[in-house]
Amino acid sequence: MTMIEIKDFGKRFSIHHLEETMQAVEGIDFCLEEGEFIGIVGKSGSGKSTILKSIYRTYLPDEGSIQYNSKQFGKIDLARATEREILFLRKYEIGYVSQFLNVMPRATSRQLVERALLEMGETEEVARLEAEQALTHFELDRKLWDTYPTTFSGGEKLRLNIAMATVKKPRLLLLDEPTASLDQQSKIKVREIIEKLRADGTTLVGIFHDIEFMEGLCDQVFHMESKRPIRKMLAGSIHES
């Protein structure tokens, strides 16, 4: 089953003080089946994050379509969905992990992860247990569980951010440099969660500068320069889709 299909996607930005319009990305096409993972690679400024933010609708696409197979709405074009539909999808179906964490200052790490589960309809007891499992998996020091994350290091914030997004087991997960400030052991933990989510049917779109991290993990690699997805083969060879 096709989970997401992007056709002729493009995004422009207006530079008001210069009275100019800049074409950030254009002509983007790729398709993912349920449970597949595509990694997007390219130089800085090539528009990788723009693609993810447009799927999540932080940005409103200017060209093309982003067809997503929603459990609630069926096939829906995220480029034209209503704000109400987007808010529902963000809450129940589509997760987003950024290398930055913006949270309410009066919520502890444990509370943030528990809230993510309670939003999905879990009981307080299940939310408590699964939150503790997630925080333990990502090796967030137990002393930090009931601490406000405003005091955390960059790596601690990122691990908490990943825990909050992955604990919901979204149908579609967007990963924007999720290992940017992590040590090798934490990267392994992230990889383990990605592999488990894929096995459970989650479809993933991710941006990574760490090519070694992506090795053997992605079904496809999309190069911003060539604008063509490369599908990985089981034997380790690759071919253009």
Automatic annotation (TrEMBL):
Coiled coil ranges: none
Domain of life: Bacteria
Entries under SUPFAM superfamilies matching the protein: P-loop containing nucleoside triphosphate hydrolases (SSF52540)
Keywords linked to the UniProt accession: ATP-binding, Lyase, Nucleotide-binding
InterPro entries to which the protein is assigned, alphabetical: AAA+_ATPase, ABC_transporter-like_ATP-bd, P-loop_NTPase
Residue ranges of domain ABC transporter in the record: 4-238
Protein name: Phosphonate C-P lyase system protein PhnL
The organism's taxonomic lineage, starting at the top: Bacteria, Bacillati, Bacillota, Bacilli, Bacillales
